[in-house]
Structure formats: structure tokens, C-alpha cells
Write a structure and sequence with these properties.
The complex is a heterodimer. Chain A is about 65% helix and about 0% strand. The longest helix of chain A is centred in the last third of the chain and has 45 residues. The radius of gyration of chain B is 21 Å and the shape is globular. The chains are: A mainly alpha, B mainly alpha. Chain A: This is Cytochrome c oxidase subunit 6A-like 2, isoform B.
């Protein structure tokens, strides 16, 4: 190495040689260590002596390469120096490692194939087979609302619902009917007040008398503007309030009726007195006899 | 005609029912205009008669196609199912409008009503009397219609007959009790917003109970004529779906209008 360094200053050609040699040395060192590690990985079961022997062999190879470099001329040295390391490493690694790696890959591929086969088999069984659309409904075909499997009809379903219906639901209806109608009581109605929002009549109805609703109840439903039917004169319901003239006329008629009533009442009183007196006379005669 | 075809769909035959149905609907809505303006319901009644005759014969033809002619393949049945589902969805939204009106008024009653719910002058029903009995009746009818359905899927003819019979009977009983409640009501449809929303919601529910009862009765008659098999009975399933829908609407009605709003 020192000779080569000294030659730099004497002749520039040898400088190139030094650079190449340094690179080769570093490469050879790395490769030798790499091969050692590979050997150790591949030959895990071997002894330490065999590993030492491998190291010695690599050292010997390195020495041989160095000797070759010194002897050859510069041009020839370039060509020969590059090729040997590659060949050495390739031969050493290739022959040992593949047998261990390939089986693993093959087993994994086989497993994948097996899984895919299983999936295919399962998929066929689980896949829903759609019914042909041209199939006419009826017969032994499946239900229209369900695709694929026929529904597993179990007789217990209808029996279950029959029991629920006949022994659970219908008796409940009967019991509730008895409870409701036995505890039912008539409610009192509210006092009539002619609220603006109640008893709305914007037009007359097209049925009945035009003032009563379809489900009119004479006791509970009041009629505007008077109120409940059994509290007011029905003939006046829905009519306009009377005017002053009508009121005066009505009062005149009322006065006439009152006068007639008084006359008749006075006459009736006199007649009653006469009858009473006559009755007393007859009573006295009978007592005298 | 042969039942063989190279496609699963039902290419319908010529039929007069869409035309007569349209005529019936037009006559009905024209009759409503006449009714509201001239107090005359004759045209309205005529429209309803035309519509009823149309739907009867249209569904008769559908039953014949499915039962005797074998035209209801799996694909056709799927279409009928989606049709029924969408119809029930439209009914749900129909009732949402009544509940909306009720909650609009009941959650913030106006000052004119006394700022209270029920409004002043209203006595509400006792929810634990006949309304509770009606709730039990509808729930019971849900159980009996389920019994009929399971029996039908197990090819048990007599049990299906009994289940359907009890379901129809309970529907009629519900209607009778509801009519009794209407007659005994201490308020009318004209008594404030309470009476209006109450009778609109419960009235339309009552009409739907009548429709559902009729639907189930038709299924009972078809069953007695051996129209259904254990695999092909969508008409019955549609009636059961509709009946369960009516039941659920009543639960909402009972909880919100009778119980909470009472």
C-alpha cells in the first residue's frame, strides 16, 4: 500500500490504480462478511470449525486476488479485477440458500389455493340462487316474497298464534268490554255559554234542517244562539232576534191575553162562590131533616 | 292463451276500466263542486257509483289474471308489492296532514280559546273507557290476522277461515263502538278547532277501518273459493299490510288525540 502511495507523486497512472484497489478492498471486505453471515444463517446446525474454515477460505481468496492485481499490467488489470468478486459471491450464495426459501413459498401458495378452493365450495353453497323470473307463482315453488330457500314452515307457528288469539286476546276483549260498560256513567254537560269559537255556523248544512250536525245529540250538543234544546223553545232556534215593532206587537197580544185571563178568572171565582154557597144550603137542609 | 312466454312480465290486455275510472273521478269532483254550491249531492253520488263499479270490476279482472290465468309471475308480484307499499306510504302522508293540523292548534292554543287545550267549552272523552277498548280491539285484530297468515302459509284452510272471520268481526265491532262514541260526543265538528281536528282525524280513520274491513272480507270470500295457495296469496298479504297500517294509525290517534290531547 505504501509503495502505491509513493508512486502517486512519481507517475499519475499509478494514482488511478490506487483508487481502484481501495474500492476493491472495501467491497471484498463487505462481501466476505456477507457471505459469512449467509453461511451462518443457512447452516445453522453446523459447527464452529466449519465456519472458521469458511473464513480461512475467504482470506485465501483475497490474497490470491491481490497477487493477480500486482502482476497484471494497468489495462489488463482493470478488466480482470472487476469480474472475479461477482463470480465468487454468486456461486457461494446461490448453491446454498434456495432449497430453504422455495419450499416456504410453495407451501404458502398451496395454502392460498386450498383457501380459495374452500371459499369457492362454501360460496356455491351459501350463494343465493335466484328464482327464474319466468316461473309462474304457485305449486312447489318458493314464496314470492323470499328468494332462495323455501321457508321452513313449522306447524307450531299457526298453533301458537291460534292459542294467542283464542285463549289470550279474545277473552281480553270480552273482559275489557264488561269492565268498560259496567263502569260507564253518564257525564254532566257544561252550562251553555255562547263562545265565539263554539257552535260555528257559517252556512246551513245540506242535510236535516241545516242547523244540526250529522251526529247531533239533543242532550249534549247545544244549538246557537239559544243553547240546549230542552231548555229553550225549539221553534225560535236559529231565527233572527225580534225587532222593537215585533216586541210591541207581542206585548200587546200578551196584554190582551192577560185581560182575558183576568176576566175569566173573576167569573170563575164568582161561580165557585155560588157553588160553595149552594152546597152549604143543601148541607143545612139535610141536617134539619 | 298459453302460459308460456319468453319474458316474465305481464303485457296487459285491453280493458275499459282506466277510462271508466277516469270518468268516475271526474264526475265525483264535479259533483263536489255542485254539492258545495247548490246543496245538491246527486252528481257526487253518481260519480261515486261509477267509481265503485269500476274498482269492483277492475279488481275482479286482476283476481282472474292472478288466480285462473297464471299471469302473476314473480316479477309481476314484485311490482304489485311495490305498488301496495307506495299506496300505504301515500296514506301515511295523508294522515300526517291531520296530525299536523291537530298539533298546530293544540301545542299553542290561541288566546280566544282561553289559551288552553281542550278549549273552553269542550269536554273531552275519557281515554280509559271506550277508546281503550277500541285500542285493544284493533291490537287483537292484528293478532288474529297474523294467525290467519301463518295458517295460510301452512296450507291450513280451516284455521285461515277462522282467523279471517275473527278479524272481520273485530273490525265491525270497532266501527260500532266508534259510531256509539260519535253519537254520545259532548262536542260536534262545529265546536272550535278541537271538534274539527278530532272528527277529521277519527272520521277518516273510521273510513279506513271500513275499507280495511271490506278488503279483509273480500279476502275471506276469495279464500272460501280456494283462490289462495300457500305460495301465492298476495291479495291477502296486501290486506294484512293495510290492516296493520290502520292499526298503527289508531295507536297514534289514541295516544295524541284521546290521551294527550284529552
Amino acid at each position: 500500500m505504501r509503495h502505491l502511495q509513493l508512486m502517486k507523486y512519481v507517475n499519475p497512472r499509478f494514482a488511478i490504480n490506487t483508487v481502484i484497489t481501495q474500492r476493491l478492498m472495501s467491497k471484498s471486505d463487505g462481501k466476505s462478511s456477507g457471505t459469512g453471515s449467509k453461511d451462518a444463517k443457512c447452516k445453522g446446525t453446523k459447527d464452529a470449525k466449519s465456519s472458521n474454515a469458511a473464513k480461512k477460505s475467504t482470506e485465501a481468496k483475497a490474497k490470491a486476488s491481490d497477487a493477480a492485481k500486482k502482476a497484471t499490467p494497468p489495462k489488463a488489470a482493470k478488466e480482470t479485477k472487476v469480474t472475479p468478486p461477482k463470480d465468487e459471491t454468486a456461486i457461494a450464495g446461490g448453491s446454498k440458500c434456495p432449497p430453504k426459501v422455495q419450499p416456504v413459498a410453495e407451501t404458502s401458495k398451496n395454502k392460498k389455493k386450498l383457501q380459495s378452493c374452500d371459499e369457492l365450495l362454501l360460496g356455491k353453497s351459501t350463494r343465493k340462487q335466484k328464482k327464474p323470473l319466468t316461473a309462474i307463482q304457485g305449486g312447489d315453488l318458493g314464496c314470492p316474497g323470499r328468494t332462495g330457500k323455501k321457508p321452513q314452515i313449522v306447524a307450531q307457528h299457526s298453533k301458537l298464534w291460534q292459542k294467542i288469539s283464542l285463549f289470550g286476546v279474545l277473552p281480553m276483549i270480552a273482559i275489557l268490554t264488561l269492565l268498560v260498560f259496567s263502569t260507564r256513567s253518564e257525564e254532566e254537560r257544561l252550562e251553555f255559554k255562547n263562545y265565539e269559537h263554539m257552535y260555528r255556523r257559517t252556512k246551513r248544512y245540506w242535510f236535516k234542517d241545516g242547523n244540526r250536525t250529522a251526529f247531533h245529540n239533543s242532550h249534549f250538543n247545544a244549538l246557537p244562539p239559544a243553547g240546549y234544546e230542552d231548555e229553550v223553545d225549539e221553534s225560535g232556534i236559529g231565527q233572527d232576534p225580534e225587532t222593537d215593532k215585533d216586541k210591541k206587537a207581542r206585548m200587546k197580544e200578551f196584554d190582551k191575553v192577560v185581560k182575558n185571563w183576568r176576566k175569566h178568572s173573576s167569573k170563575r171565582d164568582a161561580q165557585l162562590k155560588k157553588e160553595a154557597a149552594a152546597a152549604e144550603k143543601e148541607a143545612r137542609k139535610q141536617e134539619a131533616q | 292463451m298459453s302460459t308460456h312466454s319468453n319474458h316474465p312480465f305481464h303485457l296487459v290486455d285491453y280493458s275499459p276500466w282506466p277510462l271508466t275510472g277516469a270518468i268516475g273521478a271526474m264526475t265525483t269532483v264535479s259533483g263536489m263542486v255542485k254539492w258545495f254550491h247548490q246543496y245538491d249531492i246527486s252528481l257526487f253520488v253518481l260519480g261515486n257509483i261509477i267509481t265503485i263499479l269500476t274498482v269492483y270490476q277492475w279488481w275482479r279482472d286482476v283476481s282472474r289474471e292472478g288466480t285462473y290465468q297464471g299471469l302473476h309471475t314473480y316479477a309481476v308480484t314484485i311490482g304489485l308489492r311495490w305498488g301496495m307499499i307506495l299506496f300505504i306510504l301515500s296514506e301515511v302522508l295523508f294522515f300526517v296532514s291531520f296530525f299536523w293540523a291537530f298539533f298546530h292548534s293544540s301545542l299553542s292554543p290561541a288566546i280566544e280559546l282561553g289559551a288552553s287545550w281542550p278549549p273552553m267549552g269542550i269536554i273531552s272523552f275519557n281515554p280509559f273507557q271506550i277508546p281503550l277498548l277500541n285500542t285493544a280491539i284493533l291490537l287483537a285484530s292484528g293478532v288474529t290476522v297474523t294467525w290467519a297468515h301463518h295458517s295460510l302459509m301452512e296450507n291450513n284452510h280451516s284455521q285461515t277461515t277462522q282467523g279471517l272471520f275473527f278479524t272481520v268481526l273485530l273490525g265491525i265491532y270497532f266501527t260500532i263502538l266508534q259510531a256509539y262514541e260519535y253519537i254520545e260526543a259532548p262536542f260536534t265538528i262545529a265546536d272550535s278547532i278541537y271538534g274539527s281536528t278530532f272528527f277529521m282525524a277519527t272520521g277518516f280513520h273510521g273510513i279506513h277501518v271500513l275499507i280495511g274491513t271490506t278488503f279483509l272480507l273480500v279476502c275471506l270470500l276469495r279464500h272460501l273459493n280456494n283462490h289462495f295457495s300457500k305460495n301465492h296469496h298476495f291479495g291477502f298479504e296486501a290486506a294484512a299490510w293495510y290492516w296493520h297500517f290502520v292499526d298503527v294509525v289508531w295507536l297514534f290517534l289514541y295516544i295524541t288525540i284521546y290521551w294527550w290531547g284529552g
